[in-house]
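Researcher: Structure prediction, please.
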Amino acid sequence: KTPSGIRSGDMTMEAKQRKNLAKMGGRVATVQEFLDLSAAELRLIDLRILLARELRERRTARRVTQAQLAKLLGTSQPRVAAMEAGDPQTSLEALLRALIVLGATPTLKVA
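Model: Predicted structure follows.
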């Protein structure tokens, strides 16, 4: 299962709901299908979500506020909140930098 749950297929719809949706001309699709995402785009989204979750977990485990982290990063508290929310405008580099500031030692494993 991926962090976004996009590929997991875990979400199911009751048969009655599917039937009603079909009557209205709708269809059930994954987020990937709905947004027409490539496999590469989907992997990047999953990576961003993983990094954002790890950032929030590390920050809260160290009892650092978003405002304190923002000061360490030279940015604003709303920007840190956006980073933790997986804002697509946040670069992967910014997420990694914030994790490093919090003591993480990122490693790269390309499979």
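Model: The mean pLDDT is 87.
Researcher: Thanks, that helps.
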